[in-house]
UniProtKB/TrEMBL annotation:
InterPro entries per UniProt: CML48/49/50 (IPR044590), EF-hand-dom_pair (IPR011992), EF_Hand_1_Ca_BS (IPR018247), EF_hand_dom (IPR002048)
PANTHER family: CALCIUM-BINDING PROTEIN CML48-RELATED, CALCIUM-BINDING PROTEIN CML49-RELATED
SUPFAM superfamilies assigned: EF-hand
UniProt keyword list: Calcium
Record-annotated EF-hand domain positions: 1-25, 56-91
The name this protein goes by in its record: EF-hand domain-containing protein
Example of a GO MF term: calcium ion binding
């Protein structure tokens, strides 16, 4: 059903439509970020197997969102985000946490809505993985050439 044009693949707009009817509206940016993380490429096209993986991973993110929205406000504030990230194994400094809330809050109320929460977590997860690939001593420090750095970071900026 999600394969609207019957091509045998799901493109970014088809995925956006499929996921948005399920529970919430997703921005094309979040959808593309999901596709990038599941395919490792910037070709916005997935098959049935990846479609299932994306679908179930979103259910997982939804559960995390609901669990850490402690006050049931429908949004994740700074302390809720800190706990959610910690539970995922990401220990960010107060400075980074503050930057995340200002960047992903589109409401102006220092709180992050569902779609932006997913976008935020996917970005943190993806960037942390890129960093860890280079943190060979596991001491929180990594060496990048300029090129490697750009290759690691750019997909998250322009997904
Ligand atoms: Ca909340």
């Amino acid at each position: 059903m999600a394969d609207h044009d019957g091509s045998g693949f799901i493109d970014d707009k088809e995925l956006q439509r499929a996921l948005s009817t399920y529970s919430h509206a997703f921005s094309l940016r979040t959808v593309r970020l999901l596709m990038y993380l599941f395919t490792g490429s910037n070709i916005y096209r997935i098959g049935p197997k990846e479609f299932n993986l994306v679908f179930y991973s979103l259910q997982n993110w939804r559960a995390i969102f609901l669990k850490f929205d402690r006050d049931n406000s429908g949004k994740i504030d700074s302390s809720e985000l800190r706990e959610a990230l910690l539970s995922l194994g990401f220990s960010v400094s107060p400075f980074v946490l503050d930057m995340l809330v200002s960047k992903y809050d589109r409401t102006g109320r220092r709180a992050i809505e569902y779609d932006n929460f997913i976008e935020c977590c996917l970005t943190i997860k993806g960037l942390t993985e890129k960093f860890k690939e280079r943190d060979t001593m596991f001491n929180g420090s990594a060496t990048f050439t300029y090129d490697m750095f750009m290759f690691s970071v750019l997909p998250f900026l322009i997904a």
